TrEMBL record:
<dbReference type="InterPro" id="IPR013096">
    <property type="entry name" value="Cupin_2"/>
</dbReference>
<dbReference type="InterPro" id="IPR011051">
    <property type="entry name" value="RmlC_Cupin_sf"/>
</dbReference>
<dbReference type="InterPro" id="IPR014710">
    <property type="entry name" value="RmlC-like_jellyroll"/>
</dbReference>
<feature type="domain" description="Cupin type-2">
    <location>
        <begin position="35"/>
        <end position="101"/>
    </location>
</feature>
<protein>
    <submittedName>
        <fullName>Cupin domain-containing protein</fullName>
    </submittedName>
</protein>
<dbReference type="Pfam" id="PF07883">
    <property type="entry name" value="Cupin_2"/>
</dbReference>
Length: 111
């Protein structure tokens, strides 16, 4: 057992960066991280080669995929399959996301 301190908690991006990404845990079959986008910020991520689950722990935004768009806020759980384009837009409140990748982030190579 392991308690993952800080996972899903808001952290402002470092000076000169758009967003904050921290990998909090990594094992071969999954990884857990925290992705933060400040209010008014731009999500600059690319599709991933792993399946992904986001849990919104703070903030509000809109997620856009080829299948549609949805408003999200605290408590929302979002599944994004490997390779699917997705982006958080209209970030109206500092957005903190707990992110779970299966298998571990980047373990399947690049998209």
């Amino acid at each position: 057992m392991r308690i993952i301190d800080g996972a899903g908690q808001w952290a402002p991006p470092a000076q000169g960066t758009a967003n904050d990404w921290v990998e909090n845990l990594r094992v071969p079959d999954l990884s857990v991280g925290t992705y933060c986008i400040p209010a008014g910020g731009v999500d600059d991520q690319s599709p991933h080669t792993e399946d992904e689950i986001y849990v919104v722990t703070a903030g509000r935004a809109r997620i856009v995929t080829p299948d549609g768009a949805a408003e999200v806020g605290p408590g929302a759980v979002i599944f994004v399959p490997a390779g699917e384009e997705h982006r958080f837009t209209d970030v109206t409140e500092d957005l903190a996301l707990l992110v779970v990748f299966g298998p571990a982030y980047g373990s399947r190579g690049t998209a």
